[in-house]
Amino acid sequence: MNAPLPIVVQGLGPIGVRIAEAALGEPSLQVAGAVEINPEMVGRPLGEFVEGAPDVPIRDSVATARADADGDDAILVHCTGSYLDRVAGQLEEALGHGFHVVSTCEELTYPYERHPEIAAAIDAQAKEAERTVVATGVNPGFLMDALPASLASISHGITAVAVRRVQDPSRRRIPFQQKVGMGLTVEEWEARRDAGGFGHVGLVESARLLADSLGWALTDWQHDMVPCRTGGQAAVAGTLETLSGATSDGRVVSLHFEANAAVDEEYDEIVVDGTPPLTLRFDGGVFGDDATAAAVLRAARVIPNTRRGLVTVLDLPLR
């Protein structure tokens, strides 16, 4: 058996901690260290925050954490932000210190349209360093893009792919509830939407990733985001975001993301209109935090065997 791959987790928020906890049960991975900017955590043993983790001190930079991860295939699990222009410097620093990178940055899952210059720079640096960078998670990274892409591979003559993700944010972590506006007034919700940096991040990236897998060029876009309301309640119950893109000959990708505390049932559903027609449904939905941790760890396990440069989840080998 090969030696476990060393990983360093950057960003010990709820998702970073969940990933580190899950990694402790992976024989092929070794939690070697962590990086955090919170001064109250820096210097304290990682084991204080992640039960069972080694008592290495939490570092304040990737540079100082590199020594904790011995080996040529050290991997940085990057969990610090959703917006690529805000975290690109962290990715460049990681590559400069010889890390492969698996990130949860939503905009990095398919950055070629929104941030082409940043994507090109990261790709060039990764190739020069002979490292690989990939972003993944449950959404984007799997349920609304990679999974429907895989399902569509057993159908032909496809005219439409539709994905619906419906969940109750009251069962999720507080940062997620805040991200979808649960508990705000309608006026507060609209002000935050208009200011930007609000709601689910990555729906456009999922649509482009899915379209890329199908070989479709989407040109006609419709994108809408509205608050979810409940009868008689002043507070917003969450957010409904819909996105569709069509090719010049009418083939359609449509995505429905609903985080609504008033929903009667949670589910994830994929419908492929082709030959044969296909429907895949998860009653009760897929719990995002645990699925994100699994997706990140799976990417970490296979990243040494993935081509070098900036890649997407579609490029990851299955083993």
Structure, explained:
This protein has 319 residues and is of the alpha/beta class. The protein is built from 9 helices and 12 strands. The protein has a 6-stranded parallel β-sheet with strand order 2-1-3-4-5-12, sandwiched between helices. Strands 7-8-9-6-10-11 form a 6-stranded mixed β-sheet, with helices on one face. α1 (14-23) packs across α9, α3 (84-96) runs parallel beside α4 (116-129) and α5 runs parallel beside α8 (203-214). It is globular and about 50 Å long. The chain starts with a strand and ends in a 9-residue tail after the last strand. 43% of the residues are buried. The model has no long low-confidence stretch (mean pLDDT 94).
Structural class: alpha/beta
How helix-rich are the residues, as a percent range? 25-40%
Q: How large is the share of residues in beta strands?
A: 25-35%
State the major sheet: 6 strands, parallel
Contiguous runs where pLDDT drops below 50 for at least 5 residues = none
Rg, rounded, reads 20 Å
Oligomer: single chain
Q: Looking across the biggest beta sheet, what order are the strands in?
A: 2-1-3-4-5-12
How many strands in all? 12
By DSSP (H or I, 4+ residues per run), the number of helices equals 9
Order of helices and strands: EHEHEHEHEHEHHHEEEEEHE
State the end-to-end CA separation. Answer: 15 Å
Shape: globular
Mean pLDDT: 94
